[in-house]
Amino acid sequence: MALIYRERLDIGPDSPQIMVGTHVFHKEPYPPLRDRGILICGISEGRDFFEVERVDTPWHVLAFCLTGRGEVFTPDGVKRGFGAGQLALMPQGVHSGYRRIGDAPMLHVWFLLHCTSRWDFLNRAQPAIFHSQDGTALLDALRQFHREVLRFNTGDATSLAVPALDYLCLQLERATKALSSKQGWSEQLEQLFAHAQKNLQHDWSNAALAAQLHITTTHLHRLCTQHLGETPNKIVFRMKMNQAKELLMHGISVGEVARITGYQEIASFSRRFRQHFGYNPSQVLGKHLASAGHQQIWD
């Protein structure tokens, strides 16, 4: 997970906001949010200039629009508008942002969600826009939660912050339920490496793999480590070695196996094979030929 990220908040003084966050330095702190996978949540009404941009942030951003119009943007010039009754998703690790457009105030409810398995289904290669009728319910729930947190932070023992948070989370779960059927990063990575497995003769560099998902090599490395427990290079190398061993066990020559698995030099292939398994590829082939009643005449 990225420890270094950039965040730009260009919000005018005439754009009112309320928010609740997990840390003491947030406007209204309430640490139990973290247990629900929420970093910060709030309500903003862009009345003058309102623009937010984030680079390599380890959290997802959801913005439910109730009035006015907004625009999601990426550094490559892609712009996608969204308005009342729509939800803008800006996934973790993707350089993106959103801004108010037009003259009408942009009232929206927003959430910054920790990059945990709970929100895996929000992972995407690019920002996305969805229809959503849950903005008003979330607005009411978040306003109530904010009021109870204010009471909690003033020491009011009658604060209902806990049940208010429970209700807010139920509303958020309902609002994102339709998205949970979408394909997350785990599924996308599995499909990516299944495709690579079938085409191991190609040069599956980190750049080539990342290009398949339209993400950076840094993002790919982070996702593979997080979801698969290995770096992309190690995954491809392990697949190549397993395929090579299987081919050798079926009597394919060392030179042909090296070619199939993308090695231009037999010596290089043999060295990597020995480092991985602890024995030479010719030994695997020799054992197959001996069991088949043939005499090995090549190395």
TrEMBL record:
Domain called HTH araC/xylS-type: residue spans: 190-287
PANTHER family: ARAC-FAMILY TRANSCRIPTIONAL REGULATOR, HTH-TYPE TRANSCRIPTIONAL REGULATOR EXSA
High-level lineage: Bacteria, Pseudomonadati, Pseudomonadota, Betaproteobacteria, Neisseriales
Name of the featured protein: Helix-turn-helix domain-containing protein
Pfam family, one: AraC_binding
Superkingdom per UniProt: Bacteria
GO MF, one annotated term: DNA-binding transcription factor activity
SUPFAM superfamilies: Homeodomain-like, Regulatory protein AraC
UniProtKB keywords: DNA-binding, Transcription, Transcription regulation
Coiled coil: none
